[in-house]
């Protein structure tokens, strides 16, 4: 534009900026969203790929007729990985339950803890009942085992009923030793004994129930204990805050460790 001495030349083209089209903006948003989804689900994608790769490699190695030692060496890394994950189950359960319930209000934590306890108890009872029904209906296992060891098996397992399994669930809910519950759980077993009568010269077979401990973590008892601990800590408030902070920090550390192990 022309003018006097005080006028300055202004380029009109600098004032006219062409806005990007809606199509290009949508394309950029779509690409950005795809990248975010890929970053969020990259672990899941690698897991799925590893599963299919494991199937393929496993079927391929079957034709090589590997020895048992070679098979054990191939499965050794997986065994170590599973051991690490199993070692984190107990601290993960304890930290997540206690930290979550201790941060809620008394009424909220009470209802949530009660619902969690009822939900886990009902699912455990349903699992036990379903297992017993399926065993009675389809009789899984090799029939030759029953023919060969029928008398021995009948003495110990034939008398176990659904009521025994349900009472075992209730016993495991309230363990007498919380430390033992981390690696053992209780189970009912029937044992037959021969009782002699010297006067009559006869023998009588008496079957009695025995409650023994078997290997395996008592998850139900631990969950009940840590739910109760979290509820009490939530009701105490500031008095239990140092202990609550400990479990909150432990929860974050365990989650970080699990993420590292999974990667």
- Structural class computed from helices and strand pairing: mainly alpha
**Got a strand count?**
2
Shape: extended
Helix fraction by DSSP (H/I, runs of at least 4):
55-70%
Question: Average pLDDT across residues?
Answer: 75
* Largest sheet: number of strands, sense, barrel closure: 2 strands, antiparallel
Unreliably modeled segments = 1-6, 149-158
C-alpha termini separation: 65 Å
How big is the Rg?
32 Å
Determine the strand fraction and express it as a percent band.
5-15%
Give the helices and strands as they follow along the chain: HHHHHHHEEHH
What is the strand and helix layout of this fold?
Blueprint: H1 22-40, H2 42-61, H3 68-87, H4 89-102, H5 106-138, H6 143-157, H7 162-173, E1 184-197, E2 202-215, H8 219-236, H9 241-262
Antiparallel strand pairs: 1-2
Subcellular location: Membrane
Region (Disordered): 1-32
Membrane topology: Multi-pass membrane protein
Describe the model.
Its main location: membrane. It is a multi-pass membrane protein. This protein has 263 residues and is mainly alpha-helical. The protein has 9 helices and 2 strands. Strands 1-2 form a two-stranded antiparallel ribbon. α4 crosses α9 and α5 packs antiparallel against α7. It is extended and about 100 Å long. The termini are far apart. The N terminus is likely disordered.
């Amino acid at each position: 534009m022309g003018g006097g001495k005080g006028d300055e030349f202004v380029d009109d083209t600098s004032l006219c900026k062409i806005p990007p089209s809606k199509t290009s903006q949508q394309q950029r948003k779509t690409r950005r969203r795809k990248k975010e989804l890929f970053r969020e689900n990259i672990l899941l994608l690698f897991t799925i790929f590893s599963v299919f790769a494991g199937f393929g490699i496993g079927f391929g190695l079957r034709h090589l007729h590997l020895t048992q030692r070679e098979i054990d060496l191939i499965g050794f890394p997986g065994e170590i990985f599973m051991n690490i994950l199993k070692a984190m189950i107990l601290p993960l359960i304890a930290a997540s339950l206690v930290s979550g319930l201790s941060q809620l209000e008394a009424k909220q934590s009470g209802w949530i803890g009660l619902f969690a306890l009822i939900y886990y108890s009902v699912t455990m009872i349903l699992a036990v009942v379903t297992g017993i029904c399926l065993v009675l209906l389809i009789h899984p296992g090799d029939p030759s085992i029953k023919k060969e060891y029928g008398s021995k098996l009948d003495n110990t397992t034939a008398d176990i009923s659904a009521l025994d399994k349900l009472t075992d669930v209730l016993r495991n809910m309230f363990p007498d030793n919380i430390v033992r519950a981390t690696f053992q759980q209780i189970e009912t077993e029937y044992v037959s004994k021969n009782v002699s009568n010297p006067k009559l010269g006869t023998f009588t077979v008496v079957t009695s129930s025995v409650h023994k401990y078997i290997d395996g973590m008592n998850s139900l008892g631990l969950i009940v204990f840590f739910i109760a601990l979290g509820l009490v800590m939530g009701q105490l408030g500031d008095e239990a805050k140092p202990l609550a902070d400990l479990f909150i920090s432990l929860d974050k550390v365990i989650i970080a460790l699990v993420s590292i192990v999974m990667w």
